[in-house]
TrEMBL record:
UniProt-recorded name of the protein: Glutathione synthetase
Pfam family name, one: GSH_synth_ATP
Superkingdom of the organism of origin: Eukaryota
Subcellular location(s) per record: Plastid, Chloroplast
UniProt similarity note: Belongs to the eukaryotic GSH synthase family.
Pathway recorded for this protein: Sulfur metabolism; glutathione biosynthesis; glutathione from L-cysteine and L-glutamate: step 2/2
InterPro entries: Glutathione_synthase (IPR005615), Glutathione_synthase_a-hlx (IPR014042), Glutathione_synthase_C_euk (IPR014709), Glutathione_synthase_N_euk (IPR014049), GSH-S_sub-bd_sf (IPR037013), GSH_synth_subst-bd (IPR004887), PreATP-grasp_dom_sf (IPR016185)
Cofactor binding note of this UniProt entry: Binds 1 Mg(2+) ion per subunit.
Length: 483
């Protein structure tokens, strides 16, 4: 089921109306375009690829052609983005709600417990975040049976691919301008995607609000980051459009080089930091020692704008998502009945493991559920028979461990034949897609400076794969063809 670009094979012929020669031509042009326009990631086979820019690069995995998606559903997802931005901000200000909702999870999940400890310290010293910046991404799947667009999760930390996602949109438009007639597709049906420009604009506006022209934006990065170019795109747009300088540091480097001045200014390597932009710190493996936790606390105590602050980070946990789906909880945070109805319509079924009726049903029909721990970054969820086994084990042990998970309704999106490009090879397979809508939110005290939907990310994966992370190796980047 694969063909080297330029090498004829008959396996791709059964996609309606697309012959092999045409696929080879499009694939070749796509690879050239990707190389020329920075649609690249570090090549895991090259030793220094995650550390040194420009060494060991390979095109990011992408789909050869855009995925069709209903225009009305796309518009609806865009419409609710500012409401979700506002919701995260309101939830983040309710320290008691965050602490209470995660109190049981804290007992059995060490990582969540450490985050909550930092949050508790900030509550104790009555730390106020006057300038609050959120760069979010809400992920959805379109359920084939109900035709409902259901939210999978809301990312409030390290919402990746604004850079590369915007580029895939450009790639697909470019390919359809050249090949659209032969394919019967119109390039104008691919919606514009300005995620990287709008995220950079939000960071620049937060930098301006901080009001120290000599300060920098600190990008907190993992020690080996093969997805560095997605991040460098943001830094590049920040510099070129807004003349804002970024520095990149790991949590360990921040622990070594960071200091807090008496007025709350954060210095890293002697440079004042206006905005801390986290592209690390969302997973336990980012904290191999106490050094990294010290760095996280140091940044949280500072006056720098955190993207996200510890409370924004916690507002994005799976447990909070499940709490918000309970009856009458949204009413605590949102004023407009219309907004509440729009948000609620996006919620898939979400349950705590205290709900014995649902747990029994999940043991009986595990294929209808997903078990999710409080983790970001792909590769953590439990599916199928493993759901039954895990639930039976937890019940038998009678431990508190069930508080570490939530149960979510399994969503069944439609399956489409598609071409997936990875490592210069074009595969044809049956695939499903996940739509991410970016949002940026910035406020200074009472004044909302920015609350916008900021472009989108389409990820497509082989239908047999459960997980959806591109960086984790499960999916490819895609764009949308409105139908």
């Amino acid at each position: 089921m694969e063909t080297e670009v330029g090498v004829g094979a008959n396996t791709l012929l059964d996609l309606p109306g697309v012959d092999q020669d045409l696929v080879d031509k499009i694939a070749f042009d796509a690879l050239v375009w990707s190389s020329l326009h920075g649609l690249v990631v570090g090549d895991k086979t090259a030793q220094r690829s995650g550390k040194v820019p420009g060494v060991g690069m390979v095109h990011a995995p992408f789909s050869l052609l855009p995925m069709s998606f209903p225009e009305n559903q796309f518009n609806m997802a865009c419409e609710v983005a500012p409401i979700f931005n506002e919701l995260v901000d309101r939830v983040s200000l309710d320290g008691k709600f965050l602490q209470d909702s995660l109190s049981r999870t804290k007992k059995v999940d060490v990582f969540t417990a450490r985050l909550l400890d930092i949050h508790s310290k900030m509550l104790e010293i009555n730390k106020k975040e006057d300038i609050r910046l959120g760069l979010h991404r809400s992920d959805y799947m379109l359920d084939e049976q109900t035709k409902l667009l259901l939210q999978i999760e809301l990312n409030t930390i390290s919402s990746s691919f604004p850079g590369l996602g915007s580029l895939v949109t450009e790639l697909h438009r470019n390919l359809l301008i050249h090949y659209g007639e032969q394919l019967g597709l119109d390039s104008k049906k691919i919606p514009g995607n300005t995620a990287v420009k709008q995220f950079a604009e939000a960071l620049a506006k937060a930098w301006t609000e901080y009001n120290n022209p000599r300060a920098v934006v600190l990008v907190v990065a993992q020690p080996e980051e093969r997805n560095m170019y997605d991040q460098h795109w943001l830094s590049s747009v920040l510099k070129e459009r807004h003349n804002v300088t970024t520095i990149r540091k790991t949590l360990a480097e921040i622990d070594t080089e960071g200091e807090l001045l008496p007025d709350g200014t954060l210095l890293v390597g002697g440079q004042a930091v206006a905005v801390v932009y986290f592209r690390a710190g969302y997973t336990p493996i980012d904290y191999p020692s106490e050094s990294e936790w010290r760095a996280r606390l140091l940044m949280e105590q500072s006056s720098a704008v955190k993207c996200p602050s510890i409370s924004y980070h916690l507002a994005g946990t799976k447990k909070i998502q499940q709490e918000l789906a309970k009856p009458n909880v949204l009413e605590r945070f949102l004023d407009s009945k219309e907004d509440i109805a729009k948000v609620r319509k996006c919620f898939a079924g979400l349950w705590s493991l205290d709900d014995s009726e649902i747990v029994n049903h999940a043991i009986e029909k595990p294929e209808l559920y997903v078990m999710k721990p409080q983790r970001e970054g792909g590769g953590n969820n439990i599916y199928g028979e493993d759901v039954r086994e895990t639930l039976l084990r937890l019940r038998k042990e009678g431990s508190e461990e069930n508080a570490a998970y939530i149960l979510m309704q399994m969503i069944f999106p439609s399956v489409s034949p598609t071409f997936l490009m990875r490592d210069g090879i074009c595969h044809k397979d049956h695939a499903i897609s996940e739509l991410g809508i970016y949002g940026a939110y910035l406020r200074n005290k009472e004044k909302v400076i920015m609350n916008e939907q900021c472009g989108y990310l389409m990820r497509t994966k082989v239908s047999s794969s459960k997980e959806g992370g591109v960086a984790a190796g499960f999916a490819v980047l895609d764009s949308i063809y409105l139908t």
